[in-house]
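Q: Please design a sequence for this.
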């Protein structure tokens, strides 16, 4: 089995910077992750499914996106707010953390 970017980001030279879970966590996932690489660049990807597939099983460095703003995350949050286990407060904290980091870079 190959290494999974979600469960072993360090094997890809990444660390988790923020994570958003939009599902109700009942035998499903709908997750966005923001990672930071060793150069300080932020990367992101989203994946969803039932409990059968492994989250992010088909993701690797070639198919995750550079993160340059939180626009997509904000839009996604407003579309998926209902049922999310990420609370409004957690969401606001994480988005502010990302915005601050991007501004200071």
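A: Design:
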């Amino acid at each position: 089995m190959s290494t999974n970017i979600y469960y072993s980001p360090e094997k890809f030279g990444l660390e988790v910077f923020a994570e958003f879970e939009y599902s109700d966590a009942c035998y499903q996932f709908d997750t966005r992750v923001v990672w930071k690489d060793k150069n300080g660049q932020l990367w992101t990807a989203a994946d969803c499914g039932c409990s059968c597939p492994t989250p992010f099983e088909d993701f690797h460095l070639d198919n995750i996106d550079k993160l340059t703003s939180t626009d997509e995350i904000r839009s996604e949050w407003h579309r998926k707010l209902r049922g999310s286990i990420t609370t409004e407060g957690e969401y606001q904290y994480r988005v502010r953390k990302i915005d601050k980091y991007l501004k200071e870079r």
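Q: Thanks. Anything notable?
A: The two ends are 36 Å apart (CA to CA). Residues 9-104 form one domain.
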